[in-house]
Design a protein that fits this description.
Layout (H helix, E strand, L loop, with lengths): L1 H39 L4 H24 L7 H4 L4 H36 L13 H5 L1 H27 L2
Helix pairs in contact: 1-2, 1-6, 2-6, 4-6
Amino acid sequence: MNAVEKIIDKAVHLVEGVLAVFLLLMVLNVAFDVIMRYFFHNSSVAMQEMEWHLFAIIILYGIAVSLKEEAHVRVDFLFERFSARIKAVINIFGTVFFLLPLALLIITGSFTFVHDSWTIGEVSGNPGGLPFLWLIKGMIPLSFIFLVFSAIGYILRNIRKFQEAGR
């Protein structure tokens, strides 16, 4: 079980590094767009859309990273008072009964959304916008599949914490 947990943690950590690069690219993209707009009175719709696409990827995959890092939202002023075993039980319960069903619902619900976009060859509705809109829409089910993967590691980590606290 520890080996699987470590593999999942390494994969999530790798994605975390990729997201850091995407964040840097997004900042550079925004800076370039601002410089072009205000100094050269020239702007690119594609560059503006790329900002949103990078932002969407960072947020969508960042959910799984924040779960691994225990940076997700919860009521900490109550949670911090519990014992390690109760914290582990709450984390497992919340992940199994809230996070996983919602993630699976989004995964199954978004496939049609992505497929329809791909089938019609959807492109940006803005002149000069980006093509292949289905590609960014495809990040929705993929990121939630990755969230399920990260959640499995989170459950395993909390099972280990539960067992260690019982000793």
